[in-house]
Amino acid sequence: MLNLSEASRICGKDRTTLYRWIRTGRLSAKKQDDGGFLIDPVELHRVCPYVVNDNVKDVKNVSEGVAESSIRNNMTHGIDVAVVEELATLRAENRLLREMTDDLRTRLDKESEDRRRLTYLLEHKVEVSPSVNDEKS
Length: 137
Known about the structure:
It is a single chain. The protein is mainly alpha-helical. It has one domain (2-122). It contains 5 helices and 5 strands. The chain has helices at 4-11, 15-24, 41-47, 69-123, 130-136, and strands spanning 2-3, 30-31, 37-39, 50-53, 58-61. The protein has a 3-stranded antiparallel β-sheet. It is rod-shaped and about 100 Å long. The termini are far apart.
């Protein structure tokens, strides 16, 4: 997360411009207890596109060429956190789907075995002795 000053340096806009964007809803930010704002790097990029240049290892504003490697590190950290959270969510979902698949496979195997057993019983009726038949009548 970036404060207004860091976001201002990254996108090359004044802090007052960013503050106005936050007030009007153009830019989303979280308000801190001290009254300051924290801006998600992805949200800043949505409103004010900039380029992360890996060869130079800095952040460059497309229009104004602002460059600072420390800001790039802050930016990638914010993005990395979002990627890690998404990865954890996807792994949990994957694990749940695998468990469901295993459960369904087990149920299908059991049902198949029951079907085979019942089919065998129908095809190979056990001869009932007459004495057992007479007792039931």
